[in-house]
């Protein structure tokens, strides 16, 4: 049964706060697990290196918070799973390998990832092939690090590669690795006209993670209560299919940047109210 312990707070909407502020707020709210977003200003990594993780590990211990999931920035930065330029593609591979190393060093078991994106005026098959080659290579590397890559779909304005449940099914089949598993992004599936039921009926217990946020008809990664989705129905579905993983709070709208902790506190309370009935 879903409980507040399934919540995984995320620092992606804390870009104007120090990382310690984020951990402190999660502790105060009562959130015990976080999906750490690997982006500036909280954690620096690139194709060549990444900063020491000592500070992150120390903060997690100080505030008694676990980090079961790590997700590197992969949309607003220059690194792209399906980069069309050969040199960019190679640099991106090095970047994501460093992200996998970070995941392992943090003791996390899951790393969030997506298919990347191609060019609108190129054959779709070319972008697909680059994504397939990259995900296959990274899955092999992740296996050696005892990390599972969680593949989410993106919205059509973000990618032209894996944006639907059928795309995800095809990519997972072609990569064919135990180290690459499906992840649900509730915004992406809503935009695609899909449901949690469809995803669980298709992938069952192989779903290893969820970006569990509210959204409107046209998208938006919103805090629960700010969109048009039915939280009670969503939790009922998760319980129906015995989902026991984490619910990452990938809240990306800039409206939350000033007081991100208020959104986190409200989401925690909403889910607590639904799960303690």
TrEMBL record:
InterPro entries: IolE/XylAMocC-like, Xyl_isomerase-like_sf, Xyl_isomerase-like_TIM-brl. It holds the Pfam family AP_endonuc_2. Gene3D superfamilies: Divalent-metal-dependent TIM barrel enzymes. Residues 29-255 form the Xylose isomerase-like TIM barrel domain. This is Binding-protein-dependent transport systems inner membrane component. It comes from Liquorilactobacillus ghanensis DSM 18630.
């Amino acid at each position: 049964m879903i409980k507040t312990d399934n919540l995984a707070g995320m620092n992606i909407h804390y870009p104007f706060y120090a990382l310690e502020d984020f951990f402190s707020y999660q502790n105060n709210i009562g959130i015990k697990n976080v999906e750490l977003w690997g982006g500036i200003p909280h954690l620096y990594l690139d194709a060549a290196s990444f900063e020491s993780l000592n500070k992150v590990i120390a903060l997690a211990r100080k505030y008694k918070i676990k980090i079961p999931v790590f997700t590197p920035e992969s949309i607003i930065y220059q690194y792209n799973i399906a980069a069309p330029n050969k040199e960019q593609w190679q640099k991106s591979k090095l970047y994501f390998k460093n992200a996998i190393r970070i995941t392992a060093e943090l003791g996390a078991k899951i790393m969030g990832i997506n298919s990347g994106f191609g060019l609108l005026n190129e054959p779709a098959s070319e972008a697909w092939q680059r994504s397939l080659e990259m995900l296959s290579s990274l899955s092999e590397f992740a296996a050696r690090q005892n990390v599972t890559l969680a593949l989410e779909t993106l919205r059509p304005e973000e990618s032209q590669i894996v944006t639907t449940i059928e795309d995800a099914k095809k990519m997972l089949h072609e990569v064919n690795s135990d180290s690459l598993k499906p992840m649900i992004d509730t915004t992406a599936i809503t935009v695609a006209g899909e449901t949690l039921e469809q995803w669980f009926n298709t992938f069952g217990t192989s779903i290893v993670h969820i970006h569990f946020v509210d959204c409107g008809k046209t998208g938006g990664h919103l805090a629960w209560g700010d969109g048009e989705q039915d939280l009670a129905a969503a939790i009922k579905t998760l319980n129906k299919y015995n989902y026991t993983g984490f619910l990452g709070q990938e809240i990306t709208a800039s409206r939350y940047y000033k007081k991100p902790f208020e959104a986190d506190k409200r989401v925690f309370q909403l889910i607590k109210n639904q799960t303690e009935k």
